[in-house]
Amino acid sequence: MNPIKPNPGDRPVQERRTARVLLTDPEGRVLLFADSDPGVPGYRWWITPGGGTEPGESDAKAALRELHEETGLRLHPGKLHGPVATRSVWHGYTDKIVRQHETFFAATVPVFELDLSGHTDAERLTMTAHRWWSRDDLAATDEAIWPRNLVQLLDLSADPEHPAVLEESEESSVRVSAADPSGTPAPD
């Protein structure tokens, strides 16, 4: 378990580029994974499939690779739409701060049984559940959803010809700013 640093402002800062997939089923439900920070027991949030791009890899190839690694689904490149949106987001965790430059893609697939065998050791530790969420589920939940504006993002994904550039934001288990030295989870 990663201990909370005495001053959250002392955490190292990492920049990374990621590709994420808004994976929906024919009923419009979106697949999300429950993620967590081992340094903040009991706090979790839900995220779309996706992850870091490798050097020399296009965002679309990274999205397809990450989708396969995290779900077992081999999606034909022609079924991936987008990019539908981009954003920069700050993620504060107990052990680091990540400024993430995200590119979102979209795809609609039939519901399938996930194969989690491609998860990394870190994902096996922190990604504790998955489920298909309806828009009503998203609107009614008290759980943290990253990105917070996921419903808006799903609406934007209907027009992949005009990718949106979303505002820079923060989504953290421990605030990025040292202004809250308690190390308590950031509110939603």
UniProtKB/TrEMBL annotation:
Cofactor(s) needed by this chain: Mg(2+)
Record-linked Pfam families: NUDIX
InterPro entries reported in the protein's UniProt record: Nudix_hydrolase, NUDIX_hydrolase-like_dom_sf, NUDIX_hydrolase_CS, NUDIX_hydrolase_dom
Domain Nudix hydrolase positions: 14-154
Gene Ontology molecular functions: hydrolase activity
Alphabetized UniProt keyword annotations: Hydrolase, Magnesium
Stretch list, region Disordered: 161-188
Superkingdom per UniProt: Bacteria
Keyword Hydrolase: yes
CDD domains in UniProt: NUDIX_Hydrolase (cd04685)
PANTHER family tied to this protein: GDP-MANNOSE MANNOSYL HYDROLASE (PTHR43046)
Protein family (similarity comment): Belongs to the Nudix hydrolase family.
Protein name: NUDIX domain-containing protein
Organism name: Nakamurella aerolata
